[in-house]
Amino acid sequence: MAWVALVAAGVLEIVWAFFMKKSAGFTLVVPSLITIVTMIGSFGLLSVAMRSLPLGTAYTIWTGIGAVGAFALGILVLGEAATPLRLLAAALIVAGILLMKLSS
Known about the structure:
Blueprint: H1 2-22, H2 29-49, H3 55-76, H4 84-103
């Protein structure tokens, strides 16, 4: 159950990062509210996962899911650059997430 909570927390991190970008510095109400609500949900689920997972594992995987997910969303939805070096960096983050999961 901790892993399900952790993955859900990571997905919510992607959502809040995207809507923070869309909030234009918290000047738009709806994206700002979505950001705040999903942040609270993400932190809450992370805290549930940390009840049984080690801090280093949970936090690393949570931030990795958020980082790679926000990176992918930026490319797919916001038209950000998908250069070979950026793709390699994302692949290394994914490799780190997998190794962290395998080590716990």
